[in-house]
Design goal:
The structure is a homodimer of 178-residue chains. Chain A is an alpha+beta fold and 178 residues long. The first copy, chain A, folds into 2 domains: 35 residues, no CATH class; 136 residues, Alpha-Beta Complex (Nucleoside Triphosphate Pyrophosphohydrolase), CATH 3.90.79. The longest helix of chain A is centred in the C-terminal third of the chain and has 15 residues. Chain A starts with a strand and ends with a helix. Chains A and B meet through strand 1, strand 2, strand 3, strand 5 and strand 6 of A and strand 1, strand 2, strand 3, strand 5 and strand 6 of B.
């Protein structure tokens, strides 16, 4: 099934987005082009406090022109390979929380066809709260929502952010089985 | 929290990808740029047969250099607004199945910050099988996996495709409550 790269180049290099177009050989020997966006990778965290609430963030997403309810998340920094450390940083920057335990619960690939991004998902427990430290262009409201209610909001369609649906429903399964 | 568009333009126009860069005014009056990929939208389907199995597709995803196990999905055609019709088409093209009932279970937004894509998720039931009709550059293997097993594969991390994790876990919740 493999597609073999023949050649290719970066056709757009922006501040965040880098578009690549490669010429590939298909399994039947024919040629096709593959156009995709490179990405440094990212992390997201389901932070659960001692009351069983998930710390969520509300922020405006310009691309969709509205506010989204999401779990804390962020991109890896250039050259960063320690995804757990990135998860702890993003959790602290966006919610002010530190945690005693961080559990990896799998990778989330937002759009396998066109986007190289891989988001590593974590559950954070044993939270203690401090100050937030958002990026200069981030405006974030924090909201604590009981895990059961948040899972219902994911199932009902009220929450549309992909990583939030996936990570919250995974966390609910995992915690229900403990 | 709203960000107001000041101006902007399409900075890259490819076969599939269209990159926009807009200058925006932030809630505090400062300026920032927002770089994002426009997208026509898409659909995905959890097709469940009379044995409680989900028809999945395995296909090579060049962007990630490996085969993914996913539920059937596809982009809307230019100008297409009937998402349910698109779901029926993609289901038929990729798996050969037609269905008696199609249930909308919410939207999945793969990457709210940088990608304009909205994937509408459906459950398809009452399946009858016919011939597949994949796109010229699509090489797809079909595999029927019991819903409970597939949900476990989503929870364990074996499945990484975002829309598959989200739609399958939603479908499991919804069908378990019936």
């Amino acid at each position: 099934m493999t597609e073999k790269r023949l050649d290719g180049s970066e056709v757009y290099s922006g501040k965040i987005l880098h578009v690549m177009v490669d010429r590939v050989e298909l399994p039947d020997g024919k040629e096709a082009t593959r156009e995709y966006v490179g990405h440094p990778g990212a992390v997201c965290v389901v932070p659960i406090n001692e009351r069983g609430e998930v710390l969520c963030v509300r922020q405006f997403r310009y691309t969709h022109g509205r506010v989204f309810l999401e779990i804390p998340a962020g991109k890896l920094e250039i050259g960063e390979t320690d995804r757990a450390a990135a998860a702890l940083r993003e959790l602290r920057e966006e919610t002010g929380a530190r945690c005693e335990s961080l559990t990896f619960i799998g990778d989330f690939i937002p759009s396998p066809a066109i986007l190289g991004e891989v988001i590593s998902m974590y559950i954070a427990e044993g939270l203690s709260m401090g100050d937030t430290d958002p990026d200069d262009d981030e405006f974030i409201d924090i909201e604590a929502i009981p895990l059961d209610k948040l899972a219902e909001m994911c199932v009902s369609g009220e929450i549309a952010d992909g990583k939030t649906i996936a990570a919250v429903l995974k966390a609910k399964y995992i915690l229900d089985k403990r």
